[in-house]
């Protein structure tokens, strides 16, 4: 864990966070409250504003308006923005790997960016490759990796500098059961030692099993923010999610040829 003396009670805090693309409002006045040490699932349908929000939180996009605090730091202040980058790990939706580097070369490159001691970096890389079951593939170029291997390499790079906070944009999308299980185990270990995870996912079952808190965004607005413990006292996550989106199965569209019994 980092050497910061007085960690913020909120790992992620926003007020009025808004982002326009031309006349279109992609994120509309979002107020996130992500307590340090929690596993926060950020949910929403396609186009709801999830990826835009996470890009603003990680400094890839500037907000049109609103306030952001990451681990108590203000990304609008240059020195504090650098400190944020030192203390977070990010797995973006597109993974952003260097395709012509091997796993070792890519992780060494990331380690040098973070100014890690050479011996510390070597030890961490060896442990990560072993844990992620990539040790036998360490000389293969990233472009030749399977989708699941690419996800594990991106997560390894995010974990390498020993961050306080992980941002993961759809880490389980398109991965098989083995890779999914491995990623879940790593994230549980990360949180067990005091880390905070901010996760976007379409897979409600994984969110319900992993997360301690959830936020639901719809049409750019945060329509729900609660703990899983509180939510479980009433509805299931799926039911609450669909409710907040205004979806009713019985009122949904139907396919006429699937109605009724099978043809004779």
Helices and strands, with pairings:
Layout: E1 10-21, E2 24-30, E3 33-35, E4 39-43, H1 50-57, E5 65-70, H2 78-87, E6 88-91, H3 103-113, H4 118-131, H5 147-159, E7 165-169, H6 177-192, E8 196-200, H7 204-210, E9 213-218, E10 221-227, H8 228-232, H9 237-244
Parallel strand pairs: 4-8, 4-9, 6-7, 7-8
Antiparallel strand pairs: 1-2, 1-3, 1-5, 9-10
Helix pairs in contact: 3-4, 5-6
Task: Please give the largest β-sheet.
Answer: 6 strands, mixed
In CATH, the architecture is 3-Layer(aba) Sandwich
Number of domains: 1
Strands across the major sheet, in which order? Answer: 6-7-8-4-9-10
Strand content: 15-25%
Radius of gyration based on Cα positions? 20 Å
Mean pLDDT reading: 88
> CATH fold name, please?
Rossmann fold
Supply the number of helical segments: 9
Low-confidence stretches: 1-7
Helix content: 25-40%
CA-to-CA gap between the ends?
66 Å
What's the quick description here?
The protein has 264 residues and is of the alpha/beta class. The chain has helices at residues 50-57, 78-87, 103-113, 118-131, 147-159, 177-192, 204-210, 228-232, 237-244, and strands spanning 10-21, 24-30, 33-35, 39-43, 65-70, 88-91, 165-169, 196-200, 213-218, 221-227.
């Amino acid at each position: 864990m980092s050497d910061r003396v007085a960690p913020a009670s909120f790992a992620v805090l926003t007020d009025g966070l808004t982002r326009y693309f031309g006349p279109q409002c992609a994120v509309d006045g979002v107020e996130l409250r992500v307590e340090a040490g929690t596993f926060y699932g950020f949910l929403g349908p396609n186009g709801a504003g999830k990826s835009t929000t996470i890009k603003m939180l990680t400094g890839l996009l500037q907000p049109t308006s609103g306030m952001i605090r990451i681990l108590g730091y203000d990304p609008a202040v240059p020195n504090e923005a650098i400190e944020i980058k030192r203390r977070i790990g990010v797995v973006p939706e597109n993974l952003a790997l260097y395709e012509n580097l091997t796993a070792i070369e890519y992780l060494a490159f990331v380690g040098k960016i973070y100014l890690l001691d050479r011996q510390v970096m070597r030890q961490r890389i060896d442990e990560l490759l072993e844990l992620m079951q990539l040790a036998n593939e360490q000389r293969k170029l990233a472009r030749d990796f399977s989708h699941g291997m690419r996800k594990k390499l991106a997560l390894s790079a995010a974990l390498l500098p020993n961050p306080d906070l992980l941002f993961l944009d759809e880490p389980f999308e398109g991965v098989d059961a083995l890779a999914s299980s491995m990623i879940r185990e790593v994230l549980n270990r990360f949180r067990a030692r005091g880390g905070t995870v901010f996760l976007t996912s379409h897979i409600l079952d994984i969110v319900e099993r992993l997360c301690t808190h959830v936020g639901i965004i719809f049409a750019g607005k945060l329509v729900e923010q609660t703990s899983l413990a509180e939510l479980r006292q009433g509805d299931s996550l799926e039911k609450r999610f669909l409710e907040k989106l205004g979806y009713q199965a019985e009122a949904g569209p139907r396919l006429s040829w699937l109605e009724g019994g099978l043809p004779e």
